[in-house]
């Protein structure tokens, strides 16, 4: 299920947001467990459109969920699937993303923010980050979806062309934040409350359960101890973010 959540107050207050060019930040790595939740801090010096997307589904990676939070831990957006897929430039490179990747383009005021990356269906419990995620206590929850690997399972699913999706996915992820002033991955996941307390100080860098089988899913995670390896590429942005 794809859940896109946008706060009405945010949209109203940012209707005249600017589009000044920022920088692009590319991250990649692998989950250790199904219920891992990675956190990425980012900041804007001026209002603008920020694009956040994954590009790992087409390479066999798991089905991601991306959420955006303000510095107080209030959810601004959450999305599972960026149907129908497409391409996006980050750091001068064109990245293709699939229909089960996540893609968000949001208007944000200047300030500090947090993005989280989780695996379907580890949605946030509520619109408050401190409440955690649905699968916090179940490190192998996708085994119930069904696949021979027993983890990072997609289960029985058809894409938008009614073709079956490979149920055995990998732990690999690729995540991109486009048009911001700074972004940084939290390499050691922290409890939500602790993350919020330290958020502003981290900007030092400038068969599934209820999942339909027709490929399109509509809907709107305390991380487990893991040994995620994260690689980061930081370069000036060469082109404005494309707005979906």
Summarize the structure.
The protein is mainly β and 244 residues long.
Kindly describe this structure.
Helices cover 5% and strands 33% of the residues. It is mostly beta strands and 244 residues long. The chain has one domain: Jelly Rolls (Sandwich), CATH 2.60.120.380. Strand 6 (86-90) and strand 7 form a beta hairpin. The longest helix is centred in the N-terminal third of the chain and has 6 residues, at 8-13.
The mean pLDDT is 77
> How many β-strand stretches?
12
Structural class: mainly beta
CATH architecture: Sandwich
N-to-C order of helices and strands: HEEEEEEEEEEEHE
Helix content: under 10%
Head-to-tail CA distance between termini: 19 Å
CATH class (first level) name = Mainly Beta
**Biggest sheet layout:** 5 strands, antiparallel
As residue ranges, the low-confidence spans are: 1-20, 188-244
The main sheet orders its strands as: 8-3-10-1-12
Overall morphology: globular
Strand residues, percent = 25-35%
Count of discrete structural domains: 1
Radius of gyration (Å): 17 Å
Q: Number of helical segments?
A: 2
